[in-house]
Design a protein that fits this description.
four-stranded antiparallel beta sheet, single chain, alpha+beta, 7 strands, 325 residues, three-stranded antiparallel beta sheet
Length: 325
Amino acid sequence: MIKKTIPLVLAVLFFLTGCGYFSFLGLGQSPETKAGIKTLEEMIRLGNPKDLNAVDREILPTTKIILDLGEAAIPTLKKALYDPKEEIRHFASQALFFMGGEKARDTLKEAFDKTKNEFIQTCLCLSMASTGTPDDVYFLMKILESGNDNENKAAASAFLSLVVLKPERTIKEIKLNSGSGAKMDSKWKEFFLLSLNLGSQEPPQMKIAGPEDKINLTLFKFGIPGTDLSPVFIEEGKERTWKLENKVWSYFQDDNREIYHSKGMSDIYKPPYIDFETYINKAGTQALVNIGVVFGKKAGSGYSFILKMIKGEWKVVGMALTWIS
């Protein structure tokens, strides 16, 4: 009787949970996934700060492993959230933000409820851009109400997630200065309303662009902070020019290639420069893009954007400020 019952129980578990329960046990995982988890666990065990920096100007090998593993990495990262070493806790928090989705968000929320750690709270706010439920929006607005200081990292992260989500009710309340919008600091309101003016119309080049350029065009359409300050940007790495005409961004290559390497000694670049580093996970379902917008030697900023493939199109589901000068 017992021998017959065990297979039946397993069958019921599979029916109710899909393969999630078995994946948690390490069953049903491909050799590649198992190898990736093992590599991730080893990197965390060694604790090399150079490896454990998910948010960086360069997309590091560890970050690529996280994007490739997806939710299979959550048990390892969940354990790392409570590690005695701060750099490991920070890495796990950032990695879960990059992963996005309900499971990653809930893992961060559970850790924040237990630890009240400010850095985990910051990544929790960033992760909510990927889920965007009414409860998420309410949480983000509450963070902004309690963190009106512009130096508050959690408030800044909540602001960025609201920029990604652009909730209609929030936009209305901010414009009318009513409800939760009335409690938001005037500077956050100003920044949020300015963000609504970013972005452009659907670029015709989207139909013929390669995989990475489709993502770049999606980001221009969404709105890259800083690109509202100039209608022209130089992309030095690919020797091409990005130009805004009739509310549409497009790229082309100038016959004079020297303009792509003419920063010279000037402190101000005319036109400014933009650079992209892109990684698309092996499943082709998620992408990470690091963008630098540079107006001069000491004037620029960098962002990380998370995109997911939804119904055959790339959609921005997260963003974070990575550097500023």
